[in-house]
Design brief:
It is a single chain. The protein is of the alpha+beta class and 214 residues long. It is built from two helices and 16 strands.
């Protein structure tokens, strides 16, 4: 009887230990387990679903992404990573980016292509291949070919490039307002000069005045 009782107690203790260990592992896995959702967009081969790679593995839209993951987009495909309260970032085609994040901040290393911040709780620190770190706010883009850019830019041929991947070409928005502002300012200055330079200025070109016949 005593031996059976001890065996039952031993089995009970083993079961309790296994349960406690299992719950501890679940709790540790949930602690700091912030994840992101990947969304893939762009062209695809007929009959095939578009995908990028995460840590070298094919990844389609809806893929869960963990911190310290490396995302690579092929030619013709874009990807967006939704990180909840931390923010949302987008990758252009032919981009390789290792992303690190938690509940409040996003950082990462850009090896190729470009990354754009669509929204973020804090500025996103991006390290480029030349060893520099740029701080991006919403609407700003960092690339491996140059410093960060806001909105869009033109390439060497003059073509407007959608750097922030928002589907809008905004290359001339700032410049056009400046040009029209200068034109209006010049016209106003000319009118003021004509009105004040000579109070007796004859705007009629010096034509003679004909009196009516009496």
């Amino acid at each position: 009887m005593n031996s059976k009782l001890w065996i039952q107690k031993a089995l009970t203790m083993c079961s309790l230990t296994a349960i406690i260990a299992s719950y501890s592992m679940v709790a540790l896995a949930n602690a700091g387990g912030v994840t992101g959702e990947l969304i893939v967009s762009g062209g695809s081969t007929a009959g095939e679903t578009s995908f990028v790679t995460v840590n070298g593995e094919p990844a389609k839209s809806g893929r869960t992404v963990f911190t310290s993951s490396t995302i690579t987009t092929p030619d013709g495909l874009n990807a967006t990573l939704n990180l909840g309260t931390a923010g949302k970032i987008a990758f252009g085609p032919n981009t390789t980016f290792t992303v690190n994040f938690d509940d409040n901040a996003i950082t990462g290393n850009l090896s190729a292509g470009n990354v754009t911040v669509l929204g973020a709780a804090k500025s996103v620190a991006v390290k480029t291949p030349d060893g520099k770190t740029v701080s991006l706010n919403a609407g700003e883009t960092a690339s491996t070919t140059g410093a960060k850019t806001a909105r869009d830019s033109r390439d060497s041929s003059g073509k407007c490039i959608d750097d922030d991947n928002d589907g809008k070409l905004e290359c001339d928005e700032g410049g056009s307002w400046l040009i029209w502002g200068l034109v209006v300012a010049g016209a106003v200055a000319g009118l003021i000069y004509v009105a004040t330079a000579n109070n007796n200025a004859d705007l009629g070109g010096g034509a003679g005045i004909i009196s009516p016949t009496r």
